[in-house]
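Obj: model holo form, ligand = 6-O-phosphono-alpha-D-glucopyranose.
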Amino acid sequence: EAAEKGGYDWFMLKEIAEQPAVVADTLRGRLTDTGQIVLDEVRLSDQDLRDVTKIFIIACGTSAYAGMIAKYAIEHWTRIPCEVELASEFRYRDPVLDRSTLVIAISQSGETMDTLMALRHAKDQHARILAICNTIGSTIPRESDAVLYTRAGVEIAVASTKAFLAQIVACYLIALHLASVRGVKWGDEVSLIVNQLREMPGKVDQVLDTMQPVRDLAREHLSDARQVLFIGRHVGFPVALEGALKLKELAYINAEGFAAGELKHGPIALIGQDTPVVAIVPSPAGRDSLHGKVISNIQEVRARGAKTIVIAEEGDEAVVPFADHLVRVPRTPTLLAPLVTTVPLQVLACEVAASKGLDVDQPRNLAKSVTVE
Ligand code: G6P
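Output (holo structure tokens):
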């Protein structure tokens, strides 16, 4: 087993380190300059994709957070309305589905029963199904109309890391493909995004090179925490949810993710000196005034005594006065930022768990693939 871990203490560490390659592999050979991709198994015509009027993304756990990120990209790039729904809830609320609905099922294992049952329900209502999956030939892709495989390789650690980044990449590819097939007219923007995507493996690598301070921070400041809050906006919101999920899964710390703007509507009551807050700051170059708004959210929690761990872009000087701990990530277009901002949160959770002497790869009560409803 030591050999399989390739010199790392845990499979999870190895899988985190593989992420630049996984992002590159999932992109490789799939993107034309016009944003069209070749799906792996297609039983859907381009006309079927042109006829789509509504998209639902169904998934569980970490895969559902990839779906939340996908929603931002899909709606922005394709203008098709898109909802993300936990697979375990989907069919029980009797969703409105028909032949013009595209359901995107995201699953690392391809065997998650909640996702499979939601998929079958959608199929019964004649929706088209597109799977994003990491396991070739598993049940979910077999039962779908089209498949895009993530190329993360086998993921052994129960807590998902590299499969998550691969899913996010696959979601971007599908969003671009839909935009392109449907003739959304902004060719230059598509080729710009394609080029930006091609830079992401290098950026993920850069993040990995700067993780020692995050490991030190985890050991020195978070291993005794009883509660940690994560805040973000726009695509930083699902990243906050994923960061919190990782910390609860691995370190058994009560961790919650919030949309930063929602803090004032309740969660701020949880803030005190003993509650570190991890903030994912959007790019200062990004949409509207979100950057400034997150900074004022950080000021609000600091004013109530919280220590702040701030994930922000290189060159973003506005965050410096409000960060007790500052983690830098490379400059990245807003929609693609989750590929870099997630990585420090994975490292943080892994290191906190390791410092508490916990089994990083096999957390209590969890299974890699849940094949019961
Ligand atoms: C389990 C795993 C999670 C995973 C979820 C969905 O709960 O512990 O890490 O995100 O299932 O799995 P899937 O294989 O469908 O992506």
